[in-house]
Amino acid sequence: MLALRLLLQLCYSSLVSTAFEQHNAGAMGAGGALGAYLARSMAITELPQMVAGFHSLVGLAAVATSVSSYMAHGASDPVALTATFLGALIGTITMTGQPCWLANHS
Are the C-beta atoms of residues 8 and 32 closer than 8 Å to each other? Predict the structure, then answer.
């Protein structure tokens, strides 16, 4: 709770100058509070399910990052396009546990 309190103070202090930085600090505080709540509310025997759920969120974040990168920069560079494709593919596999082309057929 002390870390959350310090993060919220930082969010509204003069150390964080831009609105973007304040938004990021607030999002980190909200994510930290949600994570702390989930960690306290789950039994130790449910730890594998919690880790799997968090890994699914990481996969979703990878897909969202890849899609937004493609939307922002397009397909001008073959290396960036390959990295975007692999990020979306690996993120989809991480999120669902299977390749995206098998999602509807298993």
Answer: no
- Are 22 and 56 found together in one domain? no
Quote the CA–CA distance of 83 and 89 in Å, as a whole number. Answer: 10
**Whether 94 contacts 58, CB under 8 Å:** yes
Q: What is the pLDDT of residues 16-66, one digit of tens each?
A: 567 767 777 788 888 888 888 888 888 888 888 888 888 888 888 899 989
Give residue 22's domain range: 1-41
Flag whether the pTM goes above 0.70: no
CA distances from 94 to 20, 55, 57, 65 (A): 29, 7, 9, 14
Assess whether 50 and 36 both reside in one domain: no
Expressed in angstroms, the distance from the first to the final Cα of the chain is 44
Instruction: Judge if 88 and 69 occupy the same domain.
Output: yes
